[in-house]
Amino acid sequence: MIRSTFRLAPGIGPWLESKLWTKGVRTWDEFPAPPAVALSARTDARLRDALALARDALARGDAETLAAMLPRAERWRLYAAFAADAAFLDIETDGEAVTAVGILDRHGPRVFLAGRDLDDFPDATAEWKLLVTFNGLSFDVPILRSAFPGWRPPRAHVDLRHLWARLGHRGGLKLLEKETGVGRAASLDGLDGRDAIRLWRLHLRGDAAALRTFVEYNLHDAVNLRTLMDLGYNRMIERLRLPASPVPVCERGDHRYDMTKLLLAL
Description:
Blueprint: H1 14-22, H2 41-59, H3 63-69, H4 79-82, E1 86-93, E2 98-105, E3 108-113, H5 121-124, E4 130-133, H6 140-147, E5 157-159, H7 160-166, H8 173-180, H9 193-204, H10 208-240, H11 253-256, H12 260-264
Parallel strand pairs: 1-4, 4-5
Antiparallel strand pairs: 1-2, 2-3
C-alpha cells in the first residue's frame, strides 16, 4: 500500500491522489516523466522530491521519515511494510497511575506490572517502528508519556479507533471484537475497564487468581489488536480499490498464543 501512496507532499490531498490513481498512476513506479498528469508544475516538483525521499526511506526501513511525510490519519498505509516491527499495546490504570502495559511485538505477548517490572517498559520499545493501539492517541500514549517522561513512541502510530470509525464502526474495542467475530476467551467475556480496576485492587490484597485474570484481560486487549489491524488494513485497501496485496489475518489472541506459562509465573 505504501508504494501506492501519494499523500507525501504539500498540495497532494485525497482528491489529487484519487485522480492520479484514476489516470493509471497506481504506484510510485508508474509515476510518469514530467509533466505528470493532473498536477501543476509546482505540485509535480514537490511530489517528485517527496517520492525520492520516500523511496530512500523505505529502502532503509525508516518508518519515522515516512510517517512524518504522511498525514496522521493515513499512517495505517505503513502497516504491511513494517508489520514485522510493529507493536500492539494496551494499558490499564487504577484511575490515575499505570498498573499494567500489555504488548505484543516480535518477541510475543508480554506484560509489565506496577510494583514489579513496569520501569522496564521503555527499554522494551527500542526496536519498534510502528505502534498500534485502540484510542491510544487520546489515552494510552499521553498517559505513558506522563509516566515515562523520557519515552517517545514511534511516529508511525495507527489508532484503530479512528481507522475503524472510517470503516463505519461506532463504539469501543469489545464491541468491535464482537462485530468482526474476533472475540476472546469465554472466561473474559463481559469484563471491562472497571473490572480491571477491581481485579487489580483484589491483587493488591493478595488475590493471586485476580492478578492472573487481570493480566489475561490486559494481554487479550493487546494481542487482539493484531487481528483487528489486519482486518482494518485489508478493508481499507478494498475500499480504495488499489492493487495492494492484503495481509494475512492472524487468529485471535487466545487461539494464537498459549499464555498459560506466562500467567502461572505471576
